[in-house]
Amino acid sequence: RCLAARCSALAAGVCLSARRGDVTRRARPAVSARAAAASARESPEKVDREMRACYEVVERMGRGAVYLGSARVPEDHPHFQHAKELARDVALAHDCTTWSGLGAGMMEAVTQGGMAAGKPVAGFMILLEAGGQRQASRKHPYLPDENYLTTSFFSARKHGLVDAGVRNTPDDRTAFFALPGGVGTLDEIFEVLALLQLRRIGSAHPVPFVVMNYDGCYDGLLQFLERDMVRYGSLRENELAPHWRACRTNEEALAYLHEFYSPPA
Questions:
Q1: Quick check: 33 and 142 in contact, CB under 8 A?
Q2: Host H or E run for residue 212
Q3: 247: closest CA among 175, 166, 161, 196?
Q4: How far apart are CA 54 and CA 71, in angstroms?
Q5: Which end of the chain is less crowded, N or C, counting CB atoms within 10 A of the terminal residue's CB?
Q6: Could you count the other beta carbons within 10 Å of the beta carbon of residue 147?
């Protein structure tokens, strides 16, 4: 009986070991799948390289006015002409580079405006994805290659645009402009606003942020922030007022910039 018990115990141990081996073997594909997924991710080093390349473009072209806006506004829309004239007049008044995402719509408008002023125009394009397939390359139709960088990552692109609007010295004349736009523009607007609110931009030298509220297109957004969020309690009364200025016309925006950069009396 003793021998039989030992044999039974040994058999049970063999079965248990076999089961454990099966579990281990079954688990391996999951581990391998995780490793494959991790290796399929694009390298953080590539993001870092793109960010550094963006900074190099900023150093080469000079900081200036950064424009955020829709790529879908047609050239015959009145706001396209407004944006073009704004970029021209800002570049002339402040002798600065015009920066944008170098796409269509409002971005094309400010590119034309900066060029009409005879001042540098630069920016960061993005490789778009259509049907899940990312573009292999993308070139601007008429700007020299040294004026811009085409990025694969939105994070690198946004780092570059933010850096282009930072004032490193009191003599730098920079600004951010929120032109009418959609989800992508709102993403950029709130990133800049949050950085200003948290004093990650403007801590050394303040930077103006102008919301171009042409024909009241941003009335709803401003009301949501200034009234609804204050009622809810997530913002204090006038908490955002120091960080940006809403302007309905180019003349109002230019007057604000003049006031912002005028030496105190």
A1: no
A2: strand 209-212
A3: 175
A4: 21
A5: C
A6: 18
* pLDDT computed for residue 44 by the predictor: 86
Count the Cβ atoms, other than its own, within 10 Å of residue 54: 24
Q: How does pLDDT run across 185-233, given as a tens digit for each residue?
A: 999 999 999 999 999 998 899 999 999 999 999 999 999 999 999 999 9
Report how far residue 85's alpha carbon sits from residue 112's, in angstroms, rounded to the nearest whole number. Answer: 9
Per-residue pLDDT, 160: 98
Look at residue 18 and tell me whether its pLDDT is greater than 60: no
Which amino acid is present at 241?
A: A
C-alpha dihedral sign at 63, 206, 226, 193: positive
Report how far residue 92's alpha carbon sits from residue 111's, in angstroms, rounded to the nearest whole number: 14
Calpha distance 192→163 (Å, rounded): 11
Query: What six digits make up the tokens of 251?
Result: 């003349």
222 in Cβ contact with 211 (< 8 Å): yes
The phi, psi pair for 20, rounded to 5°, reads -60, -40
pLDDT digit string, tens, across residues 104-158: 999 999 999 999 999 999 999 999 755 556 676 789 999 999 999 999 999 999 9
